Structure formats: C-alpha cells, structure tokens
C-alpha cells in the first residue's frame, strides 16, 4: 500500500489509556504492517498494536485527535496532537476505503472465485495468520491473564509458587531491578535449570537457581536470558499456537481464552529444554542491568568452553558491577520456599 509505505518511518508522541480508569501514559505512535504501534518511549517495547482499518476517530474535527481501536467496546483511548500523524492516519483510511472491492456485472463469478480462494486461505493461511494477529494485538492485561493461566498449568506439575513475606518483597524488587514495574518473578518448588518467560511479563524460575547458588548473579542472568529470548520468540504467540486457531478466534471475538485450550501446556514447557538466546543481544541486557555475564555463563558450562563468548565479552570483566541484591535480601529470597 503506497500510502502506508510513505509513512513507515513516521512517529509521533501520544497519550494512551488502556482503560477509562487508567492513568494516561506517554507512548510513541508509529506505523507497522497494517497496524498502529504504541510503544514505551523509554524501553521502546510495544505496548499495543491497533489494526489500522479498525482505528476510529472519536472526536472528528477536534484537537487533540482522540482515537479508539474499534470494536463494540473500545476501552482503550489514544490522544495525538501531531498534525502530520493525524493527516497520515486519515490518508491511510481513505486509501483503504478506496481499495475496497465494489460489486459489478461479474459479481456472481467473482463471488464464486472469492469463495474458492477463501476456502484455500481458510485451510492453509488463515489459521496461522489469525494466531499471529491475535498475539500481535493482545493488550498487556490480556497477556497477563493468559500468563497466569499458563502458570496455573505449570503449577499442576510443580506445586504452587513459593511465598513468604520477606521473600516476596525481594521478588518484587528483583523484578523491578531486572525487568520493569509490571513484571513478576515467580519461584517454583522444583528444578528448572533456567528461567521460563510467560505472557504478561511473568518469569518463572525454580528453587535450584536460588537455593544452590552462592550469589544472586546466576538467577539474575537466567532471568535476563528469558527476557532476551522473549524478544526473539514471543511467549504469547507460543501459547496461542498451542491453544489453536479455534480458541484464538474465541479470544479475538469474546476477549477471553478457554482454560481447556491450554491443558497440558505447562507440562510441555517443563519438558522442553530452556532455550538460550544469541550472545550479542543477551550481553546488551547484562550491560543495561549492570550485571556480570560470567556467573550465568559458568552455570551453563563450568568449564567455560561452550560459553566463551559470554565470558570474554563480559561487560564487567574489568569493572565492578552493581550489586543485584544485598546479602540480607539474598538470604530472604533463598528461604522463600522454606515451610
């Protein structure tokens, strides 16, 4: 679409409310592949994807322009006062409208051909495309809810998450330190040999990463690795692929995912080996967090041979990293699974 290609690099500041009661937060608005992307201006992480054809102007002719994502109940709201961005959204809408098919004399034949094409698409293209689209546009609240459902599936095998008041406070501090204010670190009474990232900024670790370690750097490294891996492989997309197209369609139309569609997914995640991200993007996470990468690397291979890149390129090989936790906090976290 020529009009869309023209604005591929266009960005503007906006104010986004996830719900009518949410506090407005600053976002960067940009064009994606037939979507409007709302991103955090500090982390550059996408917060929401709105389908461009569905975007609705809520206050025509007034400034700042107010938009909704479309649908029967558009809870989200976006304010933009950048005239170029407002004009771009309007132009793309006009192009989309102009390119809509109009019935003519060959309507019957075209409809028959379209039906055949739709049947092929339904069989081969629509299901995976539907799942990917649902993962792309899922808002944070929906991701968090599905993440909790996946966690409940995992807990059926491992047992409930560990919890003690002092340890829970440290979990929250560690999540803020490594990921962000909306993140959650969950400790399970089992051995995972790594960290698993779930939808909704939920990261699961086993007690083996805290009870059997001298310092918190190893656990922190596995948590950062799970974050880096989630950028390469969206855990929301993986969960929806397991749930299947029918459950995903219900999610798009009704706004919720059936718990039955995720039955057994926890066992699958526990059975699969914890994936390892590429060294270069992972090292960037260690640098931003102020944490040495060598303790994490040695936990994967004590000899260092298979993780030489992480050891030699350690951003704090010759400098002092920031402490992950105090000794007192580390002890409190190590005792979180004690009865």
Explain this structure.
By secondary structure, this protein is of the alpha+beta class. It folds into 2 domains: 2-98, PH-domain like, CATH 2.30.29; 139-334, no CATH class. 47% of the residues lie in helices and 14% in strands. The chain has 15 helices and 10 strands. The protein has helices spanning 2-6, 83-98, 107-124, 126-137, 140-158, 165-178, 208-211, 217-232, 235-243, 245-254, 265-271, 279-289, 294-300, 308-312, 327-334, and strands spanning 11-17, 25-31, 35-39, 46-51, 56-57, 65-68, 77-80, 184-188, 195-198, 202-206. It has a 7-stranded antiparallel β-sheet with strand order 4-3-2-1-7-6-5. Helix 5 crosses helix 11 (265-271) and helix 8 crosses helix 13. The mean pLDDT is 86.
